Amino acid sequence: MKSIPVVRAEAEMRELTGRWRRKGLTIGLVPTMGALHRGHLSLVELALRRARRVVVSVFVNPAQFGPGEDLDNYPRDLEGDTVLVAEAGGHAVFSPPPEEIYPPEHSTKVVVNNLTGTLCGAYRPGHFDGVTTVCSILFGIVGPDLAVFGRKDAQQLAVIRRMVRDLHMNVEIVQGDIVRENDGLAMSSRNAYLDPGERRDAALIHRAMLAAEEAVKGGERNAERIISMVSAIIESSPLARVQYVSLVDPHSLQPVPALNPTGLLAVAVYFGGTRLIDNTILTSGSQEED
Amino acid sequence: MKSIPVVRAEAEMRELTGRWRRKGLTIGLVPTMGALHRGHLSLVELALRRARRVVVSVFVNPAQFGPGEDLDNYPRDLEGDTVLVAEAGGHAVFSPPPEEIYPPEHSTKVVVNNLTGTLCGAYRPGHFDGVTTVCSILFGIVGPDLAVFGRKDAQQLAVIRRMVRDLHMNVEIVQGDIVRENDGLAMSSRNAYLDPGERRDAALIHRAMLAAEEAVKGGERNAERIISMVSAIIESSPLARVQYVSLVDPHSLQPVPALNPTGLLAVAVYFGGTRLIDNTILTSGSQEED
To answer: pLDDT band at B288, cuts 50/70/90?
Structure first.
């Protein structure tokens, strides 16, 4: 199998991308926290369709975990990840130690306001500051022409897009689809935490969202009723604890009272100590504006 | 005289720098708020010694002015500025309208903590967030190899350096010296606000700092005594109102009780409604550490 470099040091990464750039090769970046699954690999494939060289960063970013979250337990398997990236056709893994990214007296943050107060942002204060800061840093080091993010974390994608627009960063943000297990559960590195019962019931999340789509096809537009239905389906499992079910404007991420004509339905659910998220865009058949 | 482009649109700026970059020409950026004087032009000359192409940005950045500050009255003379940049050998002026830099719903900030609570930062809340945000944006658009900042605003220079380090930005920060009028007053676009009496007495700022340097040569190391002396000299003018005189660690910008062995002496003084700043590095003869 093709062997690809696993780069730890910033200087080495810059050296490699500099060499590619001088040859006129475009560069795609897929930022990840590792523990790669088919969802990540679909992002690598998407990057490969758009760029001549693809770097996958594997960095469990301490700045985006809150106190009591799963930083210490987050699954890590750099060797396995590297094999998967190589098999998918990626050209390098960038896996810096935390002190390379955050040197002593690190004191700069990139903060996106207005998109970060709802959905996950309401429950994970500081999380998106950590995400935008580390993405700025990764963009600074790798200098990619494009970066690919999955739309499973829809808020993250919106926040990153806003940051790139607002700071006039010279990078295109490309959106990858959600990849699902056979029973519909969105792929996530955190699925590995689920015990067999939780794993089985976690499929209810997607089932609830399909039911919402069906209801909308049937004419439903009311946010409150859609949210109640989705919550009820998920909470039909005694193992599920819904953190939020929200219907928001896909642009502003602010709650909407009804589809008009689209809305982002997003959910966060705990199964035991494992927090899972998922989302779908709902579009009512009628395109009329209120 | 050589005519140089005055670029208003981001896309046009990217086009120009992209052309230079493809030719292998290095790019220097001198960010300014216009109303250029010899201090700015010395930065252009410094940039020209280090880069093959030099862009001077002229942008009166609303985000770095507080309520009640002089945003509306800040001197503007784009035509005159362009002549000066061309004469100095610069290659382009970038002067975007505010809505090009801050599109509707702009909601991203770059924030440096820890260096912004003292000196000017203590009196101008949000000022440095505005500075770091606009510099990130200008770096994003121009993509310079190096950017030149004068050391008259020593805190700005320290904050920008910290931002570039912390976000791993691919730009070298180059420091330019303070350029002074014949009587020692540091050049500033705001000097134009001074009436003749204020202009005459404003020279006391530099005179006070020279006196501090002399005292240090004579063995003085105590911060309180140095600060008292500097304040007294400046306040010998009834037109002067000292905002602060501080002796801080040049790295952390935190106040120090004594030189050990160096300290940044920084002052902000109002003459009428005009706020002037200046600074100098004091180094005691003794190099011993406490």
So the answer is: very low
Tokens coding B108: 């991203």
Interface test with B, best of A134, A168, A251 (most B CBs within 10 A): A168
The Cα A38–Cα A45 span in angstroms is: 10
Question: So where are chain A's domains?
Answer: 6-176, 189-283
- pTM for this entry: 0.96
Residue B11 CA from chain centroid, whole number: 27
CA distance A97 to chain B (A): 14
pLDDT at A220: 97
pLDDT at A1 over 80: no
Please report, for residues A11, A60, B172, the alpha-carbon distance to residue B144 in angstroms, rounded to integers and kept in the order given: 19, 30, 8
Instruction: Look at the domain B6-176 and name its fold.
Output: Rossmann fold (3.40.50)
Q: Please give the Cα distance from B115 to A119 (Å, whole number).
A: 32
The string of pLDDT tens digits covering residues B33-84 is: 999 999 999 999 999 999 999 999 999 999 999 999 999 999 999 999 999 9
ipTM confidence: 0.95
The per-residue pLDDT of chain A, averaged, comes to: 96
What pLDDT was estimated at residue B194?
A: 98
Q: Tell me how far CA of residue A67 lies from CA of A71, A127, A155, B236, B242, in angstroms.
A: 9, 11, 21, 54, 44
CB contact under 8 A, B110 and A109: yes
The DSSP secondary structure of B218-279, one letter per residue, reads TT--BHHHHHHHHHHHHTTSTTEEEEEEEEE-TTT--B-SB-SSEEEEEEEEEETTEEEEEE
CATH superfamily of B189-283: Pantoate-beta-alanine ligase, C-terminal domain (3.30.1300.10)
Which pLDDT value is given to residue B52? Answer: 98
Q: Which amino acid is at A246?
A: S
Chain A interface with B: residues with Cβ < 8 Å: 10, 14, 101-103, 105-115, 132-133, 136-137, 140-141, 143, 162-163, 165-170
Asked if A106 contacts B166 with a C-beta cutoff of 8 angstroms, the reply is yes
Using the beta-carbon criterion (under 8 Å), do A167 and B113 form an inter-chain contact? no
Average pLDDT over residues B196-209: 98
Contact present, A88 and A45 (Cβ < 8 Å): yes
